[in-house]
Target: Beta-xylanase
Amino acid sequence: MIPSLREVYKEHFRIGAAVSPITIKTQKDLLVSHVNSITAENHMKFEHLQPKEGEFTFEQADEIVHFALSNNMVVRGHTLVWHNQTPPWMFYDREGKVVGKELLFERLKAHISTVIQRYKGKVYCWDVVNEAVADEGNDLLRISRWSEIAGMEFIEKAFLYAREADPNALLFYNDYNESFPEKREKIYKLVKSLLEKHIPVDGIGLQAHWSLTRPTLEEIRLAIERYASLGVQLHITELDISMFEFDDHRNDLIKPTDQMVDKQAERYDQIFSLFKEYSDVIRNVTFWGIADDYTWLDNFPVKQRKNWPFLFDENHQPKPAFWKVCTC
Ligand SMILES: Oc1ccccc1CN[C@@H]1C=C[C@@H](O)[C@H](O)[C@H]1O
Model:
């Protein structure tokens, strides 16, 4: 019997995993043993919940929520507004012209209130807006359908509609590359400006799609401290530690090298020590999966390239990284 991650960390923060309707079956034993928070990796995104205007398809999201609640796990809602995986109908009117912001906000309100009210009291927090900040350049916001039509206002409206739909749900802004200084300062500036306008942001989600070397521990520490200085809580929302650097497109391995496995173990050990140090502000640490048999990194940034980013291997056995992390 191996230690339960959820039990080891219960005084610090929740331990979560992203799931699909398939992995709640194929990875059920690991999930039930180790996590107390669940996120739908894809099935609560806009394109999955409202593929056509007015036609909501909740079956698979319901299945995931039912799995979580019947196993005494909470649910993180991911995600209400994002530039990816949003159906094109959202941005065009009946004549096929790009919508103005009034119609966009009307549709946004309909989506958010329908979805949040369905899961009121079941989904305890929402990634209301995902990845609105630009990676490069001087612009604060990334260029997207959302920002082209409505500038910053779509972000403000999304949080206001979400608060109106469920006053008890915690509302998060979620992003990646969140620990790199340039993007950290943009995320900080965005959330600070929202808070100054009394937009109800309760937390910042640090996706934490990290590699064996980047971001550095110091960069992660500085990001935690910077975001926490806004008085919001933090969730680690999509943790995985890629065996490959972002620009390393090698595709020759059928299993990780021993050096990779050992480096990953050391990396997870250091990262969880840091999370524990800040467990007063970090309230949830969610992996973007749970075992190496399934990860989105098998197709990103290199298509059809196997990766091994988690604490459990393809056979759901604990890796050296697990044994480093499971002692609190
Ligand atoms: O790490 C990145 C690099 C470039 C673009 C997006 C990301 C991360 N983007 C995440 C990854 C997978 C999706 O399932 C999540 O919904 C999304 O938030």
